[in-house]
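Support request, priority: normal
Reporter: lab tech (M.K.)
Component: structure prediction queue

Hi team, I submitted a job for Ferrous iron transport protein A from Sandaracinobacter neustonicus yesterday, and the status page still shows it as pending. I've pasted the exact input below so you can check whether something in the sequence is tripping the parser. The sequence length should be 85 residues. Please let me know if I need to resubmit or if it's stuck on your end.
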Amino acid sequence: MDSRSQVTNQTLDTLAAGRTASVAGIAPSAGPLAHRLIELGFDEGALVEVIHQAPLGDPIAVRVDGSVVALRRALAHHILLADAA
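Reply from support: The job had stalled in the queue. We restarted it manually and it finished. Here are the results:
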């Protein structure tokens, strides 16, 4: 991880709409879903931005590497964040 990024205890499901952060990693609790999250672009160092939340808060739309991905909050909880530099 870039030394300019500060590791936080924040996960993607708690990132406010319009905020940007970088991915610090995938939590071990993701189990076999970790590989799929990485395939979707949520690998270490990727910049992510929550761009929309559904009316009841689930799912959320996230911009990652130029693509928009819809994730349920339960899955987004496994994506660990660092503050963007």
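The mean pLDDT is 88. The CA atoms of residues 15 and 37 lie 17 Å apart. Let us know if anything else looks off. Ticket resolved.
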